Amino acid sequence: MAVYQVLVVDDSAFMRKIVTDLIEADPEFKVAATASTGKEAIQKAVDLKPDVITMDVEMPEMNGLDALKSIMQKSSVPVIMLSGINEQGMKETIMALEAGAFDFIRKPSISHDQDIAQVGKALVERMRAAMNEIKRKADREESLKQRKEIQDNLLRQSQRVQRDAPAQVRREPAQKRIDPVQPVTRPNSEPSERLQSKVLQRNMPLVDQKKERSDKKLEAAKSPNRIPNTREAKVPKPIKPLPTPKELRNSEPIRSAMEQTAAFSSQPLPKAVTGTEGSFNKIVAIGCSTGGPRALKTLLEELPADLPAPVIIVQHMPPNFTRSLAQRLNTFSPLHVVEAEEGMVLKKGSAYIAPGGYHIIVSKTADGKYILKLTEEHPVNGHRPSVDTMFESLLPFTSLQRHLVLLTGMGSDGARMMKKLYEAGVTSTFAENEETCVVYGMPRSAVELQCVRHLLPLQEIAPKLVQAVK
Fold it and tell me: Counting beta carbons within 10 angstroms of the beta carbon of residue 100, is it exposed (0 to 12), middle (13 to 18) or buried (19 or more)?
């Protein structure tokens, strides 16, 4: 069994000891070294080349976010951030996920043994997921390499066969012999009188021929029905001058068109163009987990402010962190991004992120409005909020055009209900492909259930989604 080497980074010696004990409780992992500052972490990451790093977010001298960015420039080692629950720590954690951190956990509460055990379980789970993803990507690259080698070998064999083939096989078939064209003797169909005339003219003396041509010209000139000579000079017709700008403006067709344009420009634009609130018949629902914050940033940046549908998002996160995530995404996206609250009325052009610790459900009021409800029912698939719970709430609303999206994430949350909606005739289903996923878990589960219509790299999902919605 492989033993993975871990570098633990934290400015607190006590926290370094707790994290080390939690990691080494699993025989798959061993703490190779520790570091107390960001600068020390960068140097040890270069010297030791660990398999995985745990990084404290808030440290003196150089914080975890800056250390992470430097490490990401030099290697692709997975880094798991350990964050406090203060506002600054949560903001920097979200930024660290955007910068390339594999995932994060919140720091354990020293006063609660149960909390320490839960954090330890979550930490080992994420480290194991990171190692599995590295192995999966390595296997995929090896498979692609082998496939390319097979294709290259087949191509070389084909070229060798063509090169070594006998000359008579490679020679192109001889062109069909074409006999030279024989002169064709056509019967003379001219009347005998005309033929005799030509013979007489040919035998006529040269002077008589000239005299005959001259007489014919004179006779044609005297004839009243003669055809005019096309070479004679023609008198040009007078050119009508172009109208002046004033005359052009006063002409009836132009004046009518200008009046219609002015009347149209004075009318207010419809609500759908100005982006004001209004009813909708379309909705977008997105689910993600590990790697989700970075994927959401890429996706929401490309969704236009006039998207004619509300967007509901479930990102697996602890309480409080989802608010920082919503605030961060709101600075990038043309949509209005907020953390969802109980009873919020859904509006097109807005995105709602389920708060950590609560399931999010779409409901309809008596007056026809769509609202959000939050519940604290038992976790589904080990998560609260759960993507399956959000998707399931959309099942009754057959009058809505429902567009479902599954992005990177561990596990299979969302796949089962995407399948159910797919069978019920949902408008479109999207999933991020293996190439761009941080963890190809949730999307793969949906693909295996054969309920994904569009399996795309992350950067191609937004344009296709906008096209489907609009």
Answer: middle
- 323, 470 Cβ separation under 8 angstroms: no
Catalytic annotation, pick one of 289, 333, 350, 386: 289
Cα–Cα distance, 270 to 1 (Å, whole number): 65
Q: Give the C-alpha distances (Å, rounded to integers) separating 429 from 350, 406, 461, 467.
A: 20, 8, 11, 13
DSSP reduced 3-state for 96: helix
From the list 386, 388, 413, 428, the catalytic residue is 413
Out of 11, 316, 412, 428, the active site residue is: 316
Please tell me whether residue 21 adopts helix, strand or coil conformation.
helix
The verdict on whether 112 is a catalytic residue reads no
Look up 289 and say whether it is catalytic.
Answer: yes
pLDDT in tens, the chain (470 residues): 679 999 999 999 999 999 999 999 999 999 999 999 999 999 999 999 999 999 999 998 899 999 999 999 989 899 999 998 788 889 999 999 999 999 999 888 776 677 888 899 999 999 999 999 988 888 877 778 888 888 888 888 888 787 776 655 555 555 555 554 454 444 444 444 554 555 445 555 444 555 555 555 555 555 545 544 544 445 555 555 555 555 555 555 555 555 444 444 434 333 333 333 458 999 999 999 999 999 999 999 999 999 999 999 999 999 889 999 999 999 999 999 999 999 999 999 999 999 999 999 999 999 999 999 999 999 999 999 999 999 999 999 999 999 999 999 999 999 999 999 999 999 999 999 999 999 999 999 999 999 999 999 999 999 999 999 99
Place of tokens 């000579």: 229
